């Protein structure tokens, strides 16, 4: 059966709506509020879980927080300013999203427990037909996909992993029934999740083994200059100052190595100050350019690694036994619990959602055939009236994804307005406009640190292509997405 067949719909009750939004995380909720604020009342949000929040509902590991200041990692219409510290914890962000969904009146528009199985474009009716896995059917003029980029855990293939006798789980699927007090815990991975959970575990566990394949660059936590000087700034001013401060980093990530050297010096100084043992320091010193992988910010990660009872293991893992992790040098380290802080399958969410566009060709078939290509990371030629939020190449290494989401929401609203103004029913981005955008994007990516910085990361696939990040300033993306250019689109 092809994906297009899978996307076919069965019989049953059908609900008609003008706009169907998939997902009620930051992206889907942002879209819902955007629609409501634009006076568009005829929309439905489908959410597979029983609550809003997306990644902030799923990730509950100890120490989980957002490393982007909350005033920026929140919607512009509801800046989240905190007292004491500029970073919000996971429960606080989840609470913020719940509040937004209530206060902006969009909760009533969300159908919970509605996992989408697929959709197909009906060319004659100019409508999307979407079905949930439990058989509910929807017909919508516009389809907005806000399923998120990072929610399918990646578990490494390690020989014997399945034989492990104790509890083992991924950082995004934390098993809160496991009491780690006094246990010997192995953490595999040293990315953004690990850097947050390791200090918590080091304090709680009896012993901690951190299996590091590549050391991350770690900077001290951002200090809120606003709270330091006690400026009675409004959320809006605080947000603007934080935004422009973050944008400076885009210069370094997209410029020559000389621009990021001061940051590397700062990170090395941080390491020197926090790790007195020269051998451990050597093991924790990265050998690639800062920014090539996500830059981490922590004041308690390095101290946790210097605690008695914590061991940083740099020898590669050879196998896992029922009660131990064995490294390539033959050392057998008994452990009680294994935590996989090993990241996510990047192409996962969209690859699993069959969306059949014009001629019954699915998004996945288009991308397998021609490679992953979009226009602005939002639209795909051949999928009329469908919009991706947090789509390919719209992630950021230096600022807040919420800014990108809001740019996308505005773009979707502008596209809908264009269709209405034109008296048309559908809009499809032209293949040549998409190809031009794609070529320019990948030209700009070629000189960015993610391609040239000498590391492997989830940003870049095995063939060296970056399908994850936006190169350059986020305000350029905002400007680029502000209008829907008539000449780049077919209206019908
Ligand atoms: O995952 P990662 P993450 N043996 O892919 C290692 C967002 N996020 O969950 O570097 C040993 O970054 C792997 O090693 P290496 C953010 O966008 C945001 O931490 O490939 N190790 C690496 O160290 C982030 O970028 C926040 O050599 C193995 C680690 O596992 C994204 O989520 C907080 C291995 C995976 O790191 C992903 O972060 C948290 C193996 N076989 C996350 N396989 C915010 O605060 C993999 N590794 C906003």
Automatic annotation (TrEMBL):
It comes from Rhodococcus tukisamuensis. Keywords: Oxidoreductase. The keyword Aminoacyl-tRNA synthetase does not apply. It comes from the Bacteria. GO terms for molecular function: flavin adenine dinucleotide binding; NADP binding; oxidoreductase activity. InterPro entries: FAD-bind_Monooxygenase_sf, FAD/NAD-bd_sf, Flavin_mOase. This is Predicted flavoprotein CzcO associated with the cation diffusion facilitator CzcD. The keyword Oxidoreductase applies. Pfam families: Pyr_redox_3.
């Amino acid at each position: 059966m092809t994906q297009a067949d899978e996307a076919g719909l069965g019989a049953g009750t059908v609900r008609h709506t003008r706009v169907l939004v998939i997902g009620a995380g930051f992206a889907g909720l942002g879209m819902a509020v955007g629609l409501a604020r634009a006076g568009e009342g005829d929309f439905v949000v489908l959410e597979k879980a029983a609550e809003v929040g997306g990644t902030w509902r799923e990730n509950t590991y100890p120490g989980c927080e957002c490393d982007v200041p909350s005033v920026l990692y929140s919607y512009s219409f509801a800046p989240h300013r905190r007292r004491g510290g500029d970073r919000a914890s996971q429960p606080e962000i989840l609470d913020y999203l719940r509040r937004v969904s209530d206060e902006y009146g969009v909760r009533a528009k969300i159908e919970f427990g509605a996992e989408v199985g697929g959709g197909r474009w009906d060319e004659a009716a100019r409508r999307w037909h979407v079905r949930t896995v439990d058989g509910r059917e929807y017909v919508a003029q516009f389809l907005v996909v806000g399923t998120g980029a990072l929610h399918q855990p990646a578990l490494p293939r390690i020989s014997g992993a399945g034989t492990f006798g104790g509890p083992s789980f991924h950082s995004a699927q934390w098993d809160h029934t496991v009491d780690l007090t006094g246990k010997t815990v192995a953490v595999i991975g040293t990315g953004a999740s690990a850097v947050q959970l390791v200090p918590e575990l080091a304090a709680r566990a009896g012993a901690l083994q951190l299996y590091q394949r590549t050391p991350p660059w770690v900077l001290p936590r951002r200090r809120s200059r606003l709270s330091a000087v006690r400026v009675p700034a409004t959320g809006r001013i605080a947000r603007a100052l934080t935004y422009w401060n973050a944008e400076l980093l885009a210069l370094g990530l997209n410029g020559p190595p000389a621009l990021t050297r001061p940051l590397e010096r700062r990170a090395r100084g941080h390491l020197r100050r926090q790790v007195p043992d020269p051998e451990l320091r050597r093991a924790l010193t990265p050998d690639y350019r800062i920014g090539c992988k996500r830059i981490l910010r922590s004041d308690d990660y390095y101290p946790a690694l210097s605690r008695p009872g914590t061991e940083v293991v740099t020898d590669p893992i050879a196998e896992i036994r029922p009660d131990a992790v064995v490294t390539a040098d033959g050392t057998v380290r008994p452990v009680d619990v294994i935590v996989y802080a090993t990241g996510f399958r990047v192409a996962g969410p969209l690859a699993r959602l069959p969306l059949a566009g014009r001629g019954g060709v699915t998004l996945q078939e288009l991308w397998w055939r021609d490679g992953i290509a979009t226009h602005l990371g939002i639209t795909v030629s051949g999928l009329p009236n469908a919009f991706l939020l947090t789509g390919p190449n719209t992630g950021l290494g230096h600022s807040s994804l919420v800014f990108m989401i809001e740019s996308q929401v505005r773009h979707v609203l502008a596209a809908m307005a264009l269709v209405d103004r034109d008296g048309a029913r559908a809009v499809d981005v032209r293949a040549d406009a998409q190809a031009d955008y794609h070529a320019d994007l990948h030209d700009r990516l070629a000189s960015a640190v993610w391609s040239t910085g000498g590391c492997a990361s989830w940003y870049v696939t095995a063939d060296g292509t970056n399908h994850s990040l936006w190169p350059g300033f986020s305000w350029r993306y905002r400007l680029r997405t502000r209008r829907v250019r008539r000449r780049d689109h077919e209206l019908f």
